[in-house]
Design a protein that fits this description.
- The complex is a heterodimer of chains A (338) and B (281).
- Chain A has 338 residues and is an alpha/beta fold.
- Helix content of chain A is 33%, strand content 30%.
- Chain A has eleven helices and 14 strands.
- In chain A, the strands form three sheets. A six-stranded mixed beta sheet of chain A has the order 6-7-8-3-9-10, with helices on both faces. A four-stranded antiparallel beta sheet of chain A has the order 2-1-4-5.
- In chain A, helix 3 crosses helix 4.
- With 281 residues, chain B is mainly alpha-helical.
- Chain B has one domain.
- Chain B is 73% helix and 3% strand.
- In chain B, strand 1 and strand 2 form a beta hairpin.
- The chains are: A alpha/beta (338), B mainly alpha (281).
- At the A-B interface, helix 2 and helix 3 of A face helix 1, helix 5 and helix 11 of B.
């Protein structure tokens, strides 16, 4: 099968002055290289739903920006639909639809329909095709009845759906979706996920999705690449990645009223392979802790003892199924939202 | 891409939509009435009252535009004021168009499309041409009907002066837009250029009133030539032959500024692609 997207040793280096360095009129701190993407090699066949996972700053967005021609690679090559992103930028742009996480890609003082008509003209979609496609897309994203209202009156979810419709105007074979559900309420996020899954299954679009929501990638993607510090550290089907971890047990619990050293002490317990914690939305000082262990039953007394020693209170302790988040923790030693 | 228009037809339609978008965004904020009508009326009235004050209640004051040739000062100042309005609008609106798109988050979505990137500037230039034409017409009617300013228009020269003068203004706007893609916060620089324009180009007083070194600098300032040509066509009624020098200089300046601005713009956006600063503001 032909590759829809292929990257060969794709690298992007930014030069940044160190944060906090002193600068004066006569002396400016020397910029230092930051390898945002470091030798990325990917082959994504036509029709695949591919997920690029990683925490903030891992290099996902930089990779997407190079694929969509907004950034020039420092070295290496990116081919999209067979075209070189650096040398055949216009052909690449005609082959892709792009959605970024912010809904600000739209003109808020234009109506939804006017936004689509404007972008259709920029994508050189002929008027007779526009007359048919714009109403179809508005129906598809369930905005037909609000199409003639200014975008400023739309909710975040509606703006994101309109942004998706914009990305489909040129009927491009490849869609690049950079965290399309960030900032959406759960219902809108589910709506967007269902929609992009249909695009892949029913229309055969190749989709590259970046996200740091593991459940999203797990549910949607045929394959995922885990990226950290600009490099792919694992690349496989979600089920295969999780199967590789099946020899481990994962204990998840919420704990309240402990200090920051609990995690270090838990990591020192015999049988613990990895430990990660994230703050729970809602009550302050409550952490969600995930421990990877050889055998959960052997570990539980030690865990409860450590939490008690730190003056904490355990809530909702359970042994859970391995998720992609656990794969990520096992690979990098940190949680995705760190 | 299936069904896609390639080449000129698609670009023309994209340009038409870029212009329509600018127009819709312009008229959907209530400020449009102020820009098109209220501001031109009030600004022109200031100069027209000033001219009346200078006359000391006697005859209309005159100003010498070239040796031995004088025109009505009210007409002189009103043309200068209209040119100042055009100049400020072009530098601020065209110069900052990339910056505004960047700040509102729409720049990247425009530049992700396979249309030429200068369309943003061209759409803005077309809107400005309409705005400038309408506001100038408002001022012209006010000056003629309310204040009795004697215009002597040569239609061919007027068309040429406005066309070539517009080219120079657009060229300056493209240069400003090119610089903005590099330095982003360009408001102070643009204001300095505007202040230079007011001082050097003979907007409200003749260049001959400036000290000799400033007169040389004034001749290097494109707006001076725009004003000379427009005044010659609208106040003196000179035919194109009599304005040949001014019109030739305007054509050369317009072409040169457009090329220089285009290069700056192109290099600036290439630099943005390399450094990843297209989306930062």
């Amino acid at each position: 099968m032909r590759a829809a997207v292929e990257t060969r040793e794709l690298t992007k280096v930014f030069w940044r002055r160190p944060a906090g360095a002193r600068r004066s009129w006569f002396r400016r701190p020397r910029p230092e290289p930051l390898r945002a993407v470091d030798g990325l090699n990917l082959t994504i066949p036509e029709g695949e739903f591919f997920g690029l996972l990683g925490p903030n700053g891992a290099g996902k967005t930089t990779a997407i920006r190079m694929l969509c021609t907004l950034l020039e690679p420092t070295s290496g090559q990116a081919l999209v639909n067979g075209y070189d992103a650096a040398r055949q930028a216009d052909a690449v742009r005609a082959s892709i639809g792009v959605v970024f996480s912010s809904e600000r890609a739209l003109y808020w003082k234009l109506t939804g329909r006017e936004n689509l008509a404007y972008y259709a003209a920029l994508y050189h979609v002929p008027p007779e095709v526009c007359r048919r496609r714009i109403p179809e897309l508005l129906e598809l994203v369930e905005l037909a009845d609000r199409a003639d209202e200014y975008v400023e009156r739309y909710s975040s979810g509606m703006k994101q759906r309109l942004a998706l419709a914009k990305a489909l105007l040129n009927d491009a074979p490849v869609l690049l979706l950079d965290e399309p559900t960030v900032g959406l309420d759960p219902q809108s996020a589910r709506h967007v996920r269902d929609f992009i899954r249909r695009l892949n299954r029913e229309q055969g679009k190749t989709i590259i999705l970046t996200t740091h929501y593991m459940e999203e990638a797990d549910r949607l993607c045929d394959r995922v690449g885990v990226i950290d510090h600009g490099r792919i550290i694992a690349l496989d089907r979600p089920a295969s990645l999780k199967a590789a971890l099946r020899q481990e047990d994962v204990i998840e619990f919420q704990v309240a009223g402990v200090n920051g050293r609990l995690l270090d002490d838990l990591r020192r317990l015999p049988g613990v392979r990895q430990a990660a914690a994230t703050a729970v939305d809602g009550p302050a000082g409550v952490l969600n802790v995930r421990l990877h262990a050889d055998r959960a039953p052997d570990l539980l007394p030690g865990v409860l003892g450590e939490v008690g020693r730190h003056g904490g209170e355990v809530r909702q302790l359970k042994v859970v199924e391995v998720t992609l988040e656990d794969v990520f923790i096992a690979l990098t030693g940190k949680g995705l939202r760190d | 891409m299936a069904g896609a228009w390639r080449g000129t037809t698609g670009t023309i339609r994209a340009l038409a939509w870029a212009t329509k978008k600018e127009w819709l965004l312009f008229v959907r904020y209530p400020v449009w009435l102020v820009i098109l009508v209220a501001l031109p009326l009030m600004l022109a009235a200031q100069f027209l009252f000033q001219a009346r004050a200078f006359s000391l209640g006697q005859a209309r004051p005159l100003v010498e535009v070239t040796e031995g040739v004088a025109v009505d000062y009210a007409g002189y100042a009103v043309v200068g004021m209209v040119a100042l309005m055009w100049f400020a609008l072009t530098l601020q609106d065209m110069g900052m168009v990339v910056r505004r798109e960047q700040a509102q988050g729409t720049l990247e979505s425009n530049w992700l499309a396979p249309s030429p990137r200068w369309l943003l500037l061209a759409g803005k230039a077309a809107l400005l041409a309409a705005v400038m034409g309408l506001s100038a017409a408002v001022v012209f009617v006010e000056a003629r009907l309310v204040f009795g300013v004697p215009f002597a228009v040569h239609p061919v020269s007027a068309g040429l002066a406005l066309g070539l003068g517009g080219l120079v203004l657009v060229g300056m706007g493209v240069c400003a837009a090119g610089l903005v893609t590099w330095i982003k916060e360009a408001e102070p620089q643009i204001q300095i250029v505007q202040a230079l324009g007011v001082m050097l180009s003979g907007m409200i007083f003749p260049v001959a009133a400036l000290p000799a070194p400033f007169q040389v600098a004034a001749r290097a300032f494109p707006l001076t030539w725009v004003l000379d040509a427009v005044r010659g066509a609208f106040l003196l009624g000179l035919p194109p032959r009599a304005l040949a020098t001014e019109l030739t200089v305007l054509a050369g300046l317009g072409a040169g500024l457009l090329v220089a601005g285009g290069l700056l713009f192109r290099t600036g956006q290439r630099w943005g692609r390399r450094t990843g600063t297209l989306h930062t503001h």
